[in-house]
Design a protein that fits this description.
529 residues; alpha+beta; Immunoglobulin-like; Neutral Protease, domain 2; 2 domains; 8-stranded mixed β-sheet; 4-stranded mixed β-sheet; 15 helices; 22 strands; globular
């Protein structure tokens, strides 16, 4: 099937599915049920690292985002309306949405104006009538606003909505997408999405998922995308500006499209198509690609990281201009790996981040070794060699960042630490050593298949590994994931762990940078190069 035929069929199916969903919701909204008296939904979903992130009392099913960019200036902000379809998990007298943007106009619940107030980074909404448990309801927040800013590459994930010379784009991980639009901003609450852009004619608008409609009239262009598989809010991509969408054909039947600043299209025509070989490479190891399409978004600025925004991974230009292909090709494979690990299978809470980053690092290293890139990527010639070095640093990582499955804090430098990436990959290596390669590979494929489009926790991973290994691995894996010291590595009695050095004096920025380098023990910073 050609790419164009695939897109036409996908568009027809997606639009019909969305219409059916919304009509069903409209019929269900306002239904009554008996049970406990209404009470407020929790102002927080229960995440240990981010206690106020997300919200309780409902399950978001679908978001429809209408986004107006008045001009084509890269600094142009959004005037938006979000319509959230949700199901009440308790009888609600009021409920919250996460939102920290500068302004909003009004709130409507099931067609009736609702009272609201802003408390911290939440909108507290009191509907005209209580919402019964089990009821599907529709909330619309009208005329919310968000303004982009210039990213600071010296600060990891410094802004969720950033300006480039060509336009703007988003990077909301882990806890900042609600600065752009109101939502239940936690990966535990996945939903499908419709994105509707209203932009000046001649401006390109791109979001997650499949383009289902584009039209121009009266000097304005209207683009509609639908991400039909569930997605967590932190993976949203909203890219608007002087971009060109480049269709690359298909890889194992998966349509591939890239989004590049128009003036740089030729520069990336010999780089980005590596995705078409990487998709089947990963499908062979972890199963069918879980979404309708894939591609990369390149932005001509310095972010200091790459990011797995769903179906459209984000890369800044320095990845390709400052480093050899032995770095950027494995990094592209890393972000593609996240489509299975972290995007399709979403973490239950942010302490489960090792499931995302450990797996992506694991496949990055395997790919780099197979293709002769490992020395460029991390400075080692063999996969075994880099695993041994990570093992040697195990106690230092645990002392600085906390155990693999329990980051020391919600600070992004602890959540996205070397422990989440390197330590997470080491846990997988220890598991493979313990159960054997064949069983390990069955666990990996089962994980992505059983939990496709779902939320899964570290306990879920441990339980699945135990079931497929036909023995209880809870003690083994919990020691690796939550222990304060690094366990012995199966099959390598000669591997030793370096002692934890005395605490450094971190009075200056230079001292803190030097200490960070010492913690990494010669390995590159997995978040930034």
């Amino acid at each position: 099937m050609t790419a164009s035929r695939y897109r036409r069929r996908a568009a027809t199916t997606i639009v019909a599915s969305a219409a059916l969903l919304l009509s069903t919701v409209a019929g269900a909204a306002g239904a009554t049920a008996h049970g406990a008296p209404p009470s407020p939904g929790a102002a927080g979903i229960g995440d240990k690292l981010y206690p106020t992130l997300g919200n309780g009392g409902y399950d978001a099913l679908h978001y429809d985002l209408g986004l107006r960019y008045a001009t084509s200036a890269p600094s142009q902000g959004i005037d938006g309306t979000v319509t959230m379809v949700a199901r009440a998990t308790q009888s609600l007298s009021r409920f919250n949405l996460d939102f920290s943007g500068p302004g909003l106009g009004s709130v409507v619940v099931d067609g009736h104006p609702a009272a609201f107030s802003r408390v911290g980074e939440d909108i507290v909404i009191t509907p005209a009538h209580p919402i019964a448990k089990g009821t599907t309801f529709i909330t619309q927040v009208r005329h919310f606003t968000a303004n982009p800013s210039v990213a600071d590459p010296s600060q990891l994930l410094s802004t969720a909505f950033f300006i480039t010379p060509d336009g703007s784009a988003t990077a909301g991980q882990p806890n900042a997408m609600h600065s752009v639009y109101p939502s239940n901003d936690h990966p535990r609450d996945m939903a499908s999405f419709t994105f509707r852009f209203d932009v000046p004619a001649g401006t390109t608008a791109v979001a997650n998922g499949v383009l289902v409609d584009k039209r121009t009239r009266g000097g304005r262009s209207y683009w509609t995308y639908l991400q039909r598989q569930p997605m967590s809010t932190q993976l949203t991509q909203l890219a608007v500006g002087n971009y060109t969408v480049v269709q690359r054909g298909t890889a194992n039947g998966v349509p591939v499209r890239d989004v590049v600043p128009t003036r740089l299209v030729a520069e990336y025509d010999d780089k980005l198509p590596v995705e078409k070989a990487q998709i089947p490479w990963l499908e062979e190891r972890v199963g069918r690609y879980p979404f309708d399409l894939y591609g990369s978004l390149v932005v001509d600025t310095r972010l200091g990281f790459a990011l797995e925004t769903q179906t459209l991974s984000l890369f800044d230009t320095p990845w390709f201009t400052d480093y050899p292909e032995g770095v950027w090709k494995p990094v592209m494979l890393h972000e593609l790996s996240h489509m299975w690990f972290g995007d399709s299978v979403s973490p239950y809470e942010w302490s489960d981040i090792w499931q995302n980053e450990g797996h992506a690092t694991w496949y990055e290293f395997l790919y780099a070794e197979e293709n002769g890139f490992l020395a460029d990527d991390v400075g080692f010639e063999t996969f075994e060699g880099v695993m041994q070095r990570i093992y040697e640093l195990g106690d230092i990582f645990r002392d600085r960042y906390g155990p693999v499955g329990q980051p020391a804090s919600g600070d992004v430098y602890d959540v996205f630490s070397a422990q989440s990436y390197y330590g997470g990959a080491l846990v997988l290596y220890a598991l493979r050593q313990e159960v054997g390669t064949a069983t390990f590979e069955r666990i990996e494929r089962a994980w992505t298949q059983i939990y496709e489009g779902k939320v899964a926790s570290t306990a879920d991973f441990v339980a699945l590994a135990s079931r497929l290994a036909n023995r209880d691995l809870r003690g083994f894996l919990n020691e690796w994931l939550y222990g304060t010291t690094t366990p012995a590595m199966p099959g390598h009695p000669d591997w030793t762990v370096e002692p934890v050095p005395a605490p450094a004096t971190l009075a200056t920025a230079e001292a803190r940078a030097a200490a960070a380098g010492e913690v990494l023990g010669g390995l590159p910073d997995p978040r930034r190069r």
